[in-house]
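Working notes for the structural subgroup meeting. M.R. asked for a predicted model of this chain before we commit to crystallization trials. I am recording the input and output together here so anyone reviewing the notebook later can reproduce the run.

Input as submitted:
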Amino acid sequence: MLLSDLKEVVMRRILTLFFIILIFGLVLVSCKKKNNPPNKPAIPSGPATGRKDSLYEFSTITTDPDNDGICYRFDWGDGDTSDWSAWVPSGHPASLVHSWSYPGTYLVKAQAKDANEITSAWSDAHQITILYTFTRTFGGSDDDWGTSVQQTSDGGYIITGYTESFGAGWYDVYLIKTDGNGNTMGTSPTNPNQKYLNRSQILIPKFNHKFNPMR
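Returned structure, recorded in token form:
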């Protein structure tokens, strides 16, 4: 056999072996089980209202079609997303905690990831409203008490009640205007003359002396 013929036979055998390996690899790939992402998690469970700088716990749950282990993370709606939770079996919940630094309404969502790093869609949102709270003492040396608090259009508050410390004596109606942090902007016993105070759009009595200091 000529050398050229021998080379041709060898090349054919190499090509045949190559195609056999290629076909075998394609068969293996096609037979490999497809990994599915976890199902969309349930709406996170947690409180509907809270106070700023306080920790609140939220939990969620979902399943994985391939029964892979899963972990969760939460989008807190304030620009922060949690780290992934510890791994749990499919169909088991997980919980994480978060606090908000500013008052407002936030939408909390959850996402799952399986053991193959495939992520689910984000869940529908749970709404939480974070309230600003403060503690203040108003009034004078005699008996004073409040009966109602309403937020004004400038973000502050108007407080109504009764006072024996100020005014003509006995039980005068007592009005207090504060800013959003509870700092006093003005107070007054009632008087027939009325005006707007600091554009709060809450009608309060006009009085002829300086604002009484709060104690």
